[in-house]
Structures are given as C-alpha cells and as structure tokens.
Design a protein that fits this description.
alpha/beta; 6 helices; binds 4'-phosphopantetheine
Length: 164
C-alpha cells in the first residue's frame, strides 16, 4: 500500500497537475492532493475554492484503482505527511530550472523526516511550460488559457474577474 501526498498551491490547478496525478495513479495506491494554506500569500482562489475545483476536475481523471482525495495543510509538509501516514511526496518537475529548488526541498524534507521519500515526476512535454503563475498572469492580461487548465477552472477564473 503506497500512499502519496501531492502538495502544492494549486492556485489554480492546471492540466499539468492533472497529468502528474494521472501518471502517479499508475504507481501509487492512494494520492492525497494537499493544498498549502499560506497566510503570507494573496491567492487568486481561496483554499476552499481550490479544493472544490480540484475535487470536481479529479472526477475526469483516469485513476484506475488509485484512491484520490483532496485536503489542505499548514505548517511543515513532512509533519503533515507523517500525520497522514504517507510514504512519499510527489512533485512534478517541468524543466531543469525547477530541479534546483525541488532538490533543496526534497533534501531538507529528507533531513527532517528520513522515512518519507520524494518522487519527482515529469509531465507531458506539452505542459512543460505551464505553471499556475503564468496561467494567472496570461489570464489577467486578457490572454487565453484554453487547454492549459480544465474548462471548469477557466470558467471560474472568468467568474472571478467579472465579480472584481
Ligand atoms: O505549488 P508550490 O507553491 O510550488 O508548492 C510548494 C510547497 C507547498 C510544496 C512547499 O512550499 C511546502 O512544502 N510548504 C510547506 C512548508 C514546508 O514544509 N517548508 C519546508 C520545505 S523544505
């Protein structure tokens, strides 16, 4: 039984994240997608909105026998992972530029909690340039994000802008 935590900001969830989850489902028995509650950051979507969107779009994922759930956490990731009795942390790596930061985090997490492994996964090349940060920037400046995020997320982003 392999239980993985897939942590992140998911502000918002992109097709790259979903691609990682789908690939992870081929390797793990359970993946808990966990949103970091970060009071220091001003997010586009609230944690509750992000959770709701993730839960909805996850229904379209080809997950086989892998159990998927959405959660949130605050504090140290490894403390949370231990509290959820997870075996490993999954992180997506798009390019070499991601690697340095991810390696630092993975090694720090290992020092803090040697029993939890970090597994890096690569998304499809077509998502190698997709990030939540760029999606938000492009969207806020009037560009299209079609194909980069699920249609539900695109619609929620439009709703957000019209309500502002
Ligand atoms: O999607 P992101 O913003 O790249 O995710 C970063 C995340 C949430 C994985 C990272 O910031 C994190 O684990 N934060 C929790 C606090 C923590 O454990 N910090 C020490 C990391 S070595």
């Amino acid at each position: 039984m392999r239980r993985a935590i897939y942590p992140g900001s998911f502000d918002p969830v992109t097709n790259g994240h979903l691609d990682i989850i789908e690939r992870g489902c081929k390797l793990f028995d359970e993946i808990i997608i966990s949103i970091l509650v970060n009071p220091a950051k001003q997010p586009f979507f609230t944690v509750e909105e992000r959770k709701e969107m993730l839960a909805e779009v996850m229904q379209n994922i080809n997950h086989g026998n892998c159990k998927l759930s959405v959660d949130s956490f605050s504090g140290l990731l490894v403390h949370y992972a231990v509290s959820r009795q997870a075996d490993l942390i999954v992180r997506g790596i798009r390019a070499i530029s991601d690697y340095e930061y991810e390696l630092q985090m993975a090694l720090m997490n290992r020092r803090l909690e040697p029993n939890i492994e970090t597994v890096f996964m690569m998304p499809a090349e077509s998502y190698s340039y997709v990030s939540s940060r760029l999606v938000k920037e492009v969207f806020q400046l009037g560009g299209t994000v079609e194909g980069l995020v699920p249609p539900l997320v695109e619609n929620r982003m439009k709703d957000k802008l019209t309500k502002k």
